[in-house]
Amino acid sequence: MGSALPGFAGASASAAPVGPIDPGGGCWRYLPNPAADPDAAIDDVDGILALSTQLEPWGVNPRMTLQTAGDTAVGGDRTYSLTNTTGPEVLPLLSDREGKAYYYFDVLDAGSKRTPLKPVVVDFEIEAGKDAIPPTRVDGTFPITTAGTSALILRTVFFDLPGQRLVCNGQPRWISRTGPIRPRRPRTPRCWPA
Predict the structure, then answer these.
(1) Pairing outcome for strands 120-125 and 3-5
(2) What gap in Å lies between CA 123 and CA 158, rounded to an integer?
(3) Is-contact 47 35, C-beta < 8 A?
(4) What pTM value is reported for the model?
(5) What 3-state DSSP class applies to 21?
(6) Would you state the torsion angle of the CA atoms of residues 54, 62, 106, 90, taken in this order, to the nearest 10 degrees?
(7) pLDDT for the residue 102
(8) Contact, 103 vs 89, CB < 8 A?
(9) What is the Cα–Cα distance from 162 to 96, expressed in whole angstroms?
(10) Which residue has the higher pLDDT, 6 or 188?
(11) Is the Cβ–Cβ distance between 140 and 120 less than 8 Å?
């Protein structure tokens, strides 16, 4: 089982973690739809308004480290952990400086079938005097369902705060539209034989 970040890949299951590396790509900022169903999925883009005019950076000198551990055979579970050293800058906040980060991962199996995993969510709080989302860490588990070479891919991260939402992934350029851009194919090589 392998691990990859947008634009990067790992080595063997017994090798060191992938990173710390620059995730590549960037972020764009949205104004969430205030009339949206509060129970709607974070990646539901109906009615949101794009605020960015160009692709924004993940943060100042962003670095991510992704590692996996655990089973390597079909039927077992593999754990993963991703540490993100910084987040994007935020618009000035009036009072509430707490938010949630939603990390979306996919598993790409030996047959090139890409299976989305449930998002891993972590709370964060922006310290007084700071203007960027702080470091975050997420941990998750996924089942191994097929034999052969697989990769764990970080697809997208949503940083959600009152009055603003930032969507970050490995897309290398800005494409103006209302919803988040999802890469058609990851720029990551496949990695790690099972």
Answers:
(1) unpaired
(2) 12
(3) yes
(4) 0.79
(5) strand
(6) -50
(7) 94
(8) no
(9) 7
(10) 6
(11) yes
| Structure token pair of residue 182 | 């999802």
- Each as own residue / partner, the long-range contacts of residues 11-17 (CB below 8 Å, 24 or more positions apart, any chain) are 11/191, 11/192, 12/192, 12/193, 13/68, 13/72, 13/192, 13/194, 16/67, 17/65, 17/66, 17/67
160 closest CA partner among 119, 116, 117, 124: 124
Residue with tokens 């989305």: 116
DSSP one-letter code for 54 = S
- Give 5's contacts (C-beta < 8 A, 6+ positions apart): 18, 19, 21, 23, 24, 64, 66, 153, 154, 170, 188
Model confidence at 53, pLDDT cuts 50, 70, 90, reads confident
Determine if the peptide bond prior to 23 is cis (ω within 30°). Answer: no
Strand partners, 173: none
Residue 91 DSSP class: P
DSSP string for 105-137: EEEE-TT--EEEPPPEEEEEEPPTT--BPPPEE
Q: Which has the closest alpha carbon to 150: 193, 104, 118, 86?
A: 193
The neighbour count for residue 26, using CB atoms within 10 Å, is 24
- The per-residue pLDDT for 30 is 84
* Selection from 153, 142, 112, 109 nearest residue 10 by Cα: 153
Contact (Cβ atoms closer than 8 angstroms) between residue 36 and residue 46: yes
Q: CB atoms < 10 A from the CB of 68, how many?
A: 24
For residues 91 and 88, what is the distance between their CA atoms, to the nearest angstrom?
10
